[in-house]
Amino acid sequence: MAALSADYAPKPVVAPCWLLEEFVVTTECSQCNAFQSKSWSACSLTGYVERVNCTKSNRDEYKSCRSALMEEHLFWKFEAVMLALTVIFAILVVVRQRWLDRLASEKVRRQIESI
Fold first, then answer.
1. Sign of dihedral through CA atoms 41, 46, 47, 52?
2. Own/partner pairs for 12-17, CB < 8 Å, 24+ apart?
3. Residues 43, 65: contact at Cβ < 8 Å?
4. Where are the transmembrane segments (predicted)?
C-alpha cells in the first residue's frame, strides 16, 4: 500500500487574523450582495460584512457583523410576534371564560330544576 503523497494531505485550518490579534475596522458593516453571500464565508452568518485590518500582520480580511438596521428590523419583528401572541391568548382566555361560565350556569340551572 502506497503512502499518501503531500498533495493529498489535509490543509490546516487557519484562524482569521482578527481572532488572534488586534484589528481596525476599515469599512463599516454593510449588507452582502448576492455574489458575496454565495462566495464569502463571512457573509453566510448574518448577511453583513465589514472589512478589518489586523494591526500585527497588516492583513485585510472580512468579518461577519451585525448591522444596526438588521437589529432594529429583528426587534420590530419580535415585537409584532409578541403582540400577535398577546392578542391570540387574550381571545383564548375570553372564549374559555365564557365556556366555563356557560358550564357553571348550566350546572346551577340543573341543580335548581332538581329541587
1. negative
2. 16/61, 16/63, 17/54, 17/56, 17/57, 17/59, 17/61
3. no
4. 74-95
**What pLDDT was estimated at residue 5?**
53
pTM value surpassing 0.90: no
Side chain identity, residue 104: A
Nearest alpha carbon to residue 44 among 24, 25, 64: 64
Distance of CA 25 to the CA centre of its chain: 23
pLDDT at 7 over 80: no
H helices present in 32-67, as ranges = 34-39, 41-46
Q: What is the CATH number of domain 15-66?
A: 3.30.720.220
